[in-house]
Amino acid sequence: MAYIDYYNILGVAKQATQEDIKTAYRKLARRMHPDLNPDDKDAHRKFQQINEANEVLSDAEKRKKYDQYGEHWQHADDIEKNRARQQQHGTQGFGGEMHEGEFSEFFESLFGQTSRGRQRSGNVKYRGQDYNAELLLSLRQAYTTHQQTITVNGKNLRITIPAGVDNGQTIRLKGHGGPGVNGGPGGDLYITFGIENDPVFRRDGNDLYTLVDLDLYTAVLGGELLLDTFSGKIKLKVNPETQSGTKIRLKAKGFPLYKQEGSFGDLFVTYQVRIPTGLTEQQKELFAQLSRL
Amino acid sequence: MDEQSRIRVDSFCMIYEVKPDFIHTLQESGMVNIFHVLDDEFISVNDIEQLEKFMRLHRDLDINVGGIQAIDYLLHKIKDLQEEIRGLRNRLNIYE
Question: Is the Cβ pair B49, A95 closer than 8 Å?
Answer without folding.
Answer: no
